[in-house]
Write a structure and sequence with these properties.
With 160 residues, the protein is of the alpha+beta class. The protein has one domain (3-150). Helices cover 24% and strands 25% of the residues. It is built from three helices and seven strands, in the order βααβββββαβ. A hairpin with a 4-residue loop joins β2 and β3 (57-62). The longest helix is centred in the first third of the chain and has 17 residues, at 26-42. The chain is globular and about 40 Å long. The chain starts with a strand and ends in a 10-residue tail after the last strand.
Length: 160
Amino acid sequence: MKRVIPSGSAATPAKQLATFLAKLEPAVAKTVRSARAMLRDKFPTAHELVYDNYNFFVIGFCTTERASDCFVSLAANSKGVNLNFYYGAALEDPHRLLQGSGKQNRFLRLESAETLKQPDVQELIRAAVDQSDPPLVSTGRGGLVIRAIAAKQRPRRLHR
């Protein structure tokens, strides 16, 4: 898959993000916006890495500007939004919320941003942050970084 990493774009990262969100189903975009705002409020020092990939639009919340330092991410396609745990396979999941069977990543589906407020989900997010290496810094403000835009993408809206 060929990826084009924007450079020297006249659009700010925030404007680019708005353009990516506009391509999504309205209900999906609303969930992403609300969930992003909640995660941003909870983790103001996290770096947000944005990928508009072939299959998914992704916003990763990371302790540094490296994708491998991501603790959670929002991944959206035309069907909905997932909360991904980059190292989810290493998390304890006593309530069996996490889906996936890969060696590393696990996820749960977000019916709405309100899912993030559920105590069991909060517990998983805290555990993901606690296992971060390097740890999340306690002061400052993380940046919004547009990492990649795939030249070819699956439709972001359902065909009706």
